[in-house]
Specification:
The protein is α/β, with parallel strands linked by helices and about 230 residues long. Helix content is about 30%, strand content about 20%. It has helices spanning about 30-40, 50-60, 80-95, 115-125, 185, 215-230; strands at about 1-5, 20-25, 25, 45-50, 100-105, 130-135, 145, 155, 170-180, 195-200.
Length: about 230
């Protein structure tokens, strides 16, 4: 059985009620649910939440909420993998045989069904534990600097100050959208960012963190522009 698991706790601090706040006219979580449904990849779509209002919105848009996530997995410090592990083990306790899992964030409005499918195919071809979405940094990370306590600049890699950008190795980061994975890898709490993972590389215009109110405004503007230009369906 292929299962999509959508973590969606109710305690968002920086953007209150983030998972069900309207994004371009729909509750944020609805975008993830609809992308999963349209991909036609899954036997079950399960939302893992500790919040009854989120659960009701999720059901209205086509997902299941067969359990309420326990409090010990609903604090500010619990990661995605333990939450996914809990959902897999809950299904197995109900007699379900889980063969393939995708964990998709509830705040991923730029996810496209075709990307879910293409990442799935890449994951199978790679035989890796995981396949997750990623994108490249806009500038070389080797040229990055930090601010000291007295507000001065200090390079992380001062020896590379004079290196040409084109001579520096490209770096990538998690796009924060979804993670295909083997159930046993999630259950063993295997790390996603390792040689046992196959990153699916997205263009930067499909990646936008949504952690602050400013991020939210930027994401809505970007989504609307991409929609008008036909970059997303």
């Amino acid at each position: 059985m292929k299962v999509a698991i959508i973590p969606a706790r109710g305690g968002s601090k920086r953007i209150p009620r983030k998972n069900i706040k309207l994004f371009c006219g729909k509750p944020m979580i609805a975008w993830s649910i609809e992308a999963v449904l349209k991909s036609d990849c899954f036997d079950r779509i399960i939302v893992s939440t500790d919040d009854e209002e989120i659960a009701e919105v999720a059901r209205q848009h086509g997902a299941e909420v067969p359990f309420i996530r326990p409090d010990e997995l609903s604090d500010d410090f619990t990661g995605t993998i333990p939450v996914t592990k809990h959902a897999i083990e809950w299904l197995e306790e109900q007699g379900q045989v889980v063969s393939e899992v995708m964990c998709i964030y509830s705040t991923a409005p730029f996810v496209q069904p075709k990307i879910i499918i293409e990442a799935y195919n890449q994951w199978h071809s790679s035989q890796a534990n995981y396949c997750f979405t990623a994108t490249n940094y806009a500038a070389p990370i080797q040229r990055a600097f930090k601010l000291t306590v007295d507000k001065r600049a200090e390079m992380f890699y001062p020896k590379l100050f004079n290196a040409r950008s084109q001579d520096l190795e490209e770096a990538y980061h998690d796009a924060g959208q979804f993670y295909w994975g083997k159930p046993d890898a999630f259950k063993r709490l295997e790390p996603v960012f390792s040689r046992d993972s196959s990153p699916y590389i997205l263009p930067r215009y499909l990646v936008q963190d949504i952690d602050t109110p400013d991020d939210w405004v930027l994401a809505e503007l970007l989504y609307q522009a991409l929609k008008v230009n036909g970059n997303i369906k």
